[in-house]
Structures are given as C-alpha cells and as structure tokens.
C-alpha cells in the first residue's frame, strides 16, 4: 500500500535509538509506505545502506505498519521474490 507522509505522531527516535530495537521478520504485503516517490539511483546503488541502518524502520500505529525508512531495501527484496523482510519495528501507543 502506498501512503504519502507519516500519519502517526512524531516519535523523535534517533538513529542510535532505532539501533537498539532488535530486527524482526515482517511480511512485505503488510507494509504501508510513507513515501510516494522512489529514487532509482538509490534503488540500484550497491552501497545504498553503507551509511545507514541495514534494517528498514517500521512504525506500528493503530494496527497498521508504516515503512518509515527502507523503501528501496523492501523493493529490492520484492524484486528478488522474497515475501518477508527483517526490519526494526517501533510500536507506538494508540
């Protein structure tokens, strides 16, 4: 599902705080993206996660799972015909 923006409240997590959340498996078909634009240069770059987290960031809010960071990694997984992805999932209060 494609969204445009973040419908959930600002969580204020830093990259270091995200790194403390252990990755879990999540099905790709359960994710709602928060970005409507895909940058093909980022998708095709071999080192696209060199400076970032290896795991996508997902926010669970109101029973939905929003892909906040990692759209290109999720798309690469789908293109490789994988149905699951390891991601860090932040559960926000309802």
From TrEMBL:
It holds the Pfam family VapB. It comes from the Bacteria. InterPro entries: VapB-like_prob. This is Antitoxin VapB.
């Amino acid at each position: 599902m494609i969204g445009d923006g973040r419908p959930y409240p600002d969580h204020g997590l830093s990259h270091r705080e995200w790194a403390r959340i252990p990755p879990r498996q999540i099905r790709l078909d359960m994710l709602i993206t928060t970005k409507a634009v895909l940058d093909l240069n980022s998708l095709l770059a071999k080192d696209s996660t060199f400076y970032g987290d290896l795991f996508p960031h997902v926010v669970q809010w109101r029973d939905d799972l929003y892909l906040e960071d990692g759209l290109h990694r999720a798309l690469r997984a789908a293109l490789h015909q994988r149905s699951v992805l390891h991601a860090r999932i932040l559960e926000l209060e309802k």
